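Here is one such protein, fold included:

. . .
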Amino acid sequence: MARKKFTNEYIVRSSPSILFEFLTQTSNLAQWFSDYCDSQGDIFIFGWNGSFQRARQSEIVEDESVKYHWEDSQKDEYFSFRVYKSEIANDTILEITDFAEAKEIKEQTFLWDKQVEDLKHALGAF
């Protein structure tokens, strides 16, 4: 069964450049995304409760967007972060794109909501 792409947007009280550091730097990713994070070139190793997953950082546009591909996922699947300023309120927006089974999208969205709350606390932006 094909997994579906979904996107969520969050307002984050942070400058885009500082927020971007929390999406791309291992020490910052380990504060909110995973328990452990290290990298070897464009390969990022994420750890949760003693289990590890590897992802390739495949695209990066400084202060704007970054895309990661899990090594064990389908070739066209990824998770990505895009940072931009809303035109109306000038808020910093974090857009997260991910893939999940249709029946799991709500659960995955809930998980991302929790992750973003952790991100906001790490940033001091709650």
